[in-house]
Amino acid sequence: MHARALKKIWSDGGTAVGAMVMADSAMIAEAMAHAGFDFLIVDRQHGAMDEGTAVDMVRAIGGAGIVPIVRVPSNDAATIGRMLDCGAGGIIAPLTDTPEDARAIVAATRYPPDGKRSWGPVRAGLTGGPDYAARANEAVVASGMIETRDGYEALDEILTTPNLNALLVGPNDLGFSYGNLPKPMPDDPQVVRAIESIPARAAKAGAMPGIHCGDAAMANRMIALGYRWISLAVDLGYMVDGARDALGRLER
Amino acid sequence: MHARALKKIWSDGGTAVGAMVMADSAMIAEAMAHAGFDFLIVDRQHGAMDEGTAVDMVRAIGGAGIVPIVRVPSNDAATIGRMLDCGAGGIIAPLTDTPEDARAIVAATRYPPDGKRSWGPVRAGLTGGPDYAARANEAVVASGMIETRDGYEALDEILTTPNLNALLVGPNDLGFSYGNLPKPMPDDPQVVRAIESIPARAAKAGAMPGIHCGDAAMANRMIALGYRWISLAVDLGYMVDGARDALGRLER
Amino acid sequence: MHARALKKIWSDGGTAVGAMVMADSAMIAEAMAHAGFDFLIVDRQHGAMDEGTAVDMVRAIGGAGIVPIVRVPSNDAATIGRMLDCGAGGIIAPLTDTPEDARAIVAATRYPPDGKRSWGPVRAGLTGGPDYAARANEAVVASGMIETRDGYEALDEILTTPNLNALLVGPNDLGFSYGNLPKPMPDDPQVVRAIESIPARAAKAGAMPGIHCGDAAMANRMIALGYRWISLAVDLGYMVDGARDALGRLER
Amino acid sequence: MHARALKKIWSDGGTAVGAMVMADSAMIAEAMAHAGFDFLIVDRQHGAMDEGTAVDMVRAIGGAGIVPIVRVPSNDAATIGRMLDCGAGGIIAPLTDTPEDARAIVAATRYPPDGKRSWGPVRAGLTGGPDYAARANEAVVASGMIETRDGYEALDEILTTPNLNALLVGPNDLGFSYGNLPKPMPDDPQVVRAIESIPARAAKAGAMPGIHCGDAAMANRMIALGYRWISLAVDLGYMVDGARDALGRLER
Amino acid sequence: MHARALKKIWSDGGTAVGAMVMADSAMIAEAMAHAGFDFLIVDRQHGAMDEGTAVDMVRAIGGAGIVPIVRVPSNDAATIGRMLDCGAGGIIAPLTDTPEDARAIVAATRYPPDGKRSWGPVRAGLTGGPDYAARANEAVVASGMIETRDGYEALDEILTTPNLNALLVGPNDLGFSYGNLPKPMPDDPQVVRAIESIPARAAKAGAMPGIHCGDAAMANRMIALGYRWISLAVDLGYMVDGARDALGRLER
Amino acid sequence: MHARALKKIWSDGGTAVGAMVMADSAMIAEAMAHAGFDFLIVDRQHGAMDEGTAVDMVRAIGGAGIVPIVRVPSNDAATIGRMLDCGAGGIIAPLTDTPEDARAIVAATRYPPDGKRSWGPVRAGLTGGPDYAARANEAVVASGMIETRDGYEALDEILTTPNLNALLVGPNDLGFSYGNLPKPMPDDPQVVRAIESIPARAAKAGAMPGIHCGDAAMANRMIALGYRWISLAVDLGYMVDGARDALGRLER
């Protein structure tokens, strides 16, 4: 499934909801893909999957009809290109701290003349149709992450980057960079103000604001703030929380 | 972790609680192993993992300090032996329909003279200590499954099998064999009566009665009936239920 | 993709065309799935893929919208059940030499009361919808293989088996069993007569006749004989033949 | 590398020396293959490798120029056929207890009319040349194992099996079946007598006698008894013994 | 197989012909290796294989007796070193745009004092013989790619790099960088002139000129221009083209 | 197992002994972990394992109760972070040639404010307890390598880096950089002097000096020089040396 489905939700004014997948399993990715999300993020930065399993997960998610997005370990053009060639509908690069970082994401995700992506869409070309070369740039979501104080302070400059489609806020690391221990929903007033101010500024610049949320309550608060794509918790978290809850209900 | 920990719970009069793991991922198995269960069942009958991944999962579960049990695809001595060699603390063979089936499980899980397990404990020997050959038979749980009408009707004969440590009831398939569609908790009176009658008969014969349960409510009911080991739902179920619940709480 | 698509081609009077996939690669399976076939056969009998890779290939083929069929290594209920649970739309069991063999295939592929398939559709349940238990028996193709003299001579008895959906002829092994070296298109008159007589007899009994063909010329001849599903050559064969042809055109 | 190299050693009157490989790694198999052995046994009965890794190991061993033999988990025709198709130069089936067992090994390893191997040499055909179908039966070593009292007592009957190329003695399990704990070199007089009597009887019947040995001392003793192929210890054993020895020499 | 075989073809005045392998499969690589090529390029830049599978493919290609070359995802010394340690006979680094890029390739592929490759030839040392450290620099082919306008314009500077053994032209990306959509054989006159001018300049500087070709017709044209190594199409292309051709010949 | 166990050995004044693991196998890693070492180094720089297998090996080593350390392919923050998230107890980055290199290692291994490690301990969080974020910096060993002349000449500057826990000397590459072919124990006087001078200088600066040794004799010499952690040879070396020794004792 190409990221056009995600762009369509946005152009229709909607809010897209996905989740992070951290396990190393296409079966897990596929089960999550049938749970009702619009997209899933295969987390190659912190997840347990290696590159080959990530490709299997991208295939499973796309085969289930939703948009597979890969968060790459670093803002590296070769890695980004491989994931797009293997069928990722979108890329999230971590640590977008400067406008140079943002331009690097765009350069790695778009073919010339917009960018410098190299030709060879081994899987993407299968579903992309005979005119994939001409239309690929529209079929991909290029996103960075605002997850450090540096990144937040450079936000407006970052947002001048052409073809940067979206930005995802990482609240745990953002809080960490302000001197707090990681928390799903930071309570440091500086971090809270940052989180509150991002949606309008990003949206105005044409980059869809998104954020990772620990639970539905936080997600609802973020949607109300104007976030347009939500990464709603994590595969392993759903599983372990459910197991602990069931164990807690036992009478033995 | 050897199955002695499980046998200890039983000899202390306790009830052990585990879960089925169906995903193809050591990470998933390990996360489940840290959730609070006493054992986990790597489901090679219906799960998505292949043999190699099952071994990785057994390693992950044992490394987390709980008992890894493997449900093998069929009651086959070679397969059972491989899983024990690779460190499974216990084996559940499906479709124990006759006393011959039960004797085959025991023969495959125990070294001579009790059984016919072949020597070569490639992983089990690492943690089993220098006297593994002498003590292995005590370190393994051999279990069958009562999951067909045939098996239930042969229960007392099956229970005459020496060294059959346990039996697990499969309610979905048991109901199916009585002509009902599969249900986590069957409501066909014949099936309910079967489920109610098994614990006392099995326990009396020295085989620990266990049952797979769809949720904590059913588990509590089964514990009250005398079941001493509970397979409490499934990794994928916890995850998908949690994800759907979170999605259902969104306001967008 | 469920095998309903394949049954639809047949009920519409059409002929389905697929191919064997022998490489150990989901990428290969997916590329073949985009080449224009109606189905693909993941060959676990002679192919290079192990069980886990076969599941990845089934996922890739189904995700590309065509029917994934698995030829299992042997007529074994546990193996057949695992492949169906993991999403195979159909099963081909080798060496259907007796009516007992044929009944075993049906028993392994259908839920009670038609058969003895065990409940636990880990992947198949994701796409199968909430009523999968009730409808699964219709969503699966159960096929045997006629590939020995014994099997051919028992054909009419084999064809009395209820719910045997199809039969695939294996010309190489059929010829071998008559004392000839394997050939894509046998020329031994006895084997040729066998191949000519099967379609009408199978179709009359309600089992779709199919055959593996080495090339399009043989396929056309077989379609003219009444074969309704064609396994048209092999992934590795297409690749190596193409490479050799290109090398042969070089001037150096 | 075809097993012809092994048969050549035997027909030249030599003794072949190999080892068991139990780790799940093509790198390990390849390093062992460069250590000086004539063949290696990929141990799918007790080793840690799954089927797919076994194929990688067979490829690595053959690529290094020595004969890859696979000990299959059980005497199962489908499994044996798969390993031969994937390039095994020889097969060892465990638990040859009866002449029927021995005939099953031969049937599974040889094409008609000698046996019932099914056609489809996906890897073996690459190196086997254009006349592989005609010559494959000569290119494969079919071996059973004498590792139980039953097997030993049926030895002469077993040795009447045409085309049974070899037999490997498993001293650990043979001792176990006589009521002793497993030992690399059994000291039970009955077992010792069995081990002493096998070489002449097997050689006379045309089946090369072989035996697994724990170390070079035992191997020399067995060679002196007339054993013509020696499985000289195990990859993991060499490694762990070496590591322990080095640790024991430390002064700290 | 060391790259000496490739250097031998060149020193004998010949033209070497290989192909790109993009699937994630040692079986595919091995089948291609038996098709008649002098070398194969495992394409880690655009192919579907991960690093581990690339090593399996290198092993399969080398075991079949031809030269395994790896195109790495980026011009990164650690990645290049790993592939050489694991047995690659040659390296192609993408995007050789500057002489610094070219020197980086050489530094990563050669041991001191010529370069900075780090010691640890885990696989390469097995076949490299006891004097591998002394002879490794001669046993490896170091190649860059001319695939951008920048690279072409810096060609003569790039060619001053000592020990740069070869250069491969990537026509698709080269065309892309001149503003054209990717085409196997570019028709933009600037690109055509570039392609025509490279062989003589590279050969004069001692770097063997090579180019990727879509088919034999283009290859013949390129050989006539003086290209000395040809990457003749792609595994997946041969396969899919063959399948489509066969499907197109069906009459149904 | 966290690296606290390793730090405890050091704070108690002891010397820790481990080994390099280069094979691609969790089974190998686990067998080595039971051989008596305090830690093992999964060698992702020169070893045969890919990233996913490295994680399996880390799990196996930790599950066996000793400290898993990963030598990463290069001094790259994303790679280091992934290995720590997946449970590595320590990191060795190659090629510590400058103080900037050393600071990069520390930044990648420690959470803010000490470093820039990103939050997401997918496996490390399972065993790390509820306060992992607060205590992780103490639970990890950050080490560089002195393996070039540049690195040695910058040693004192490198040692000013806060929180650099250790340094490992690589004698093969160190000798190479001085113009000698690699040798387990260099004999170039300059290199010998370097190796002799490092322990006192490193220990004084609070970075534990370590070195890779080819055998116990060298290790004893190095321990006497003040080295506090020893990488005692390599898995493959133990295995192959043992096999060759056994083969050399045969009389045939």
How is this structure best described in words?
6 copies of one chain form a homohexamer. Chain A has 252 residues and is an alpha/beta fold. Chain A has helices spanning 4-11, 26-33, 51-63, 77-85, 99-109, 124-128, 132-135, 149-153, 155-158, 171-177, 189-205, 216-225, 235-248, and strands at 16-21, 39-43, 67-71, 90-92, 141-146, 166-169, 208-213, 229-234. The longest helix of chain A has 17 residues, at 189-205. The first copy, chain A, is globular, with a radius of gyration of 18 Å. Chains A and B meet through helix 2, helix 12, strand 8 and helix 13 of A and helix 2, helix 12, strand 8 and helix 13 of B. Chains A, B, C, D, E, F: This is 2,4-dihydroxyhept-2-ene-1,7-dioic acid aldolase. Chains A, B, C, D, E, F: Residues 21-239 form the HpcH/HpaI aldolase/citrate lyase domain.
Number of helices of chain A: 13
Q: Greatest chain-chain interface?
A: A-B, 43 and 43 residues
Order of helices and strands of chain A: HEHEHEHEHHHEHHEHHEHEH
CATH topology of chain A, by name, is TIM Barrel
Distance between the termini of chain A: 47 Å
- The CATH superfamily label of chain A reads Phosphoenolpyruvate-binding domains
Q: Write down the overall mean pLDDT of chain A.
A: 96
Return the structural class of chain A: alpha/beta
Q: What is the global morphology of chain A?
A: globular
Shape-level CATH architecture of chain A: Alpha-Beta Barrel
CA-based gyration radius of chain A: 18 Å
Helix content of chain A: 40-55%
Count of extended strands of chain A: 8
Keywords (chains A, B, C, D, E, F): Lyase, Metal-binding
Protein name (chains A, B, C, D, E, F): 2,4-dihydroxyhept-2-ene-1,7-dioic acid aldolase
Family (chains A, B, C, D, E, F): Belongs to the HpcH/HpaI aldolase family.
InterPro entries (chains A, B, C, D, E, F): Aldolase/citrate-lyase_domain, HpcH-HpaI_aldolase, Pyrv/PenolPyrv_kinase-like_dom, Pyrv_kinase-like_dom_sf
